Amino acid sequence: GEDVEQSLFLSVREGDSSVINCTYTDSSSTYLYWYKQEPGAGLQLLTYIFSNMDMKQDQRLTVLLNKKDKHLSLRIADTQTGDSAIYFCAERRDYGQNFVFGPGTRLSVLP
Amino acid sequence: EPEVTQTPSHQVTQMGQEVILRCVPISNHLYFYWYRQILGQKVEFLVSFYNNEISEKSEIFDDQFSVERPDGSNFTLKIRSTKLEDSAMYFCASSTQRGQETQYFGPGTRLLVL
Prior knowledge:
Shape of chain B: globular
Radius of gyration of chain B: 13 Å
Structural class of chain B: mainly beta
Number of helices of chain B: 0
Oligomer: heterodimer
Order of helices and strands of chain B: EEEEEEEEEEE
Shape of chain A: globular
Strand content of chain B: over 45%
Number of strands of chain B: 11
Largest interface: A-B, 23 and 25 residues
Order of helices and strands of chain A: EEEEEEEEEEE
Helix content of chain A: under 10%
Largest sheet of chain A: 6 strands, mixed
Number of helices of chain A: 0
């Protein structure tokens, strides 16, 4: 299909790991991104991965990329209540200038 | 850390009125963008702007929309005659150059058309 897809909701307990999944559409996508949006706030860049990489780790965040399946995931280790937000996957297609966003996954962290 | 700023944070307007949303991109950035997010929906690309002209635009960006960089710092989005369906959060973004790895987003302007 033409859309970037994500599951819409995820609930985890504080201290557990969260894994947010995304399926993108364009095999020529050069960069793939994760943005975080807290209630009423803008889009905060969390991390990105270049399409020739399989994995990128940045503190509690791990991004895994499976180019064959066009699947991207974001793992948050030791999830905290402050991680509660909507997480958007985005791709930049074929050196185009615009990003295509997924619908966002609402992460709820339970105490 | 440099950041993209947007004003106003909220705007309420009557249908048919013109609105101008303002953005100040990061100072050494050369590419500028507008996106919108209708409540509960995806973030959608509207337009990109470089070297004082539109370089790419989506189907949403029709004749009612225009963008301008009136001076060295501001980047504006104008909606000439607002419609109810223009109610959304509007995000400005900027990047250093085409092909650069990321765009930095502002906090958004929430527009409500009554």
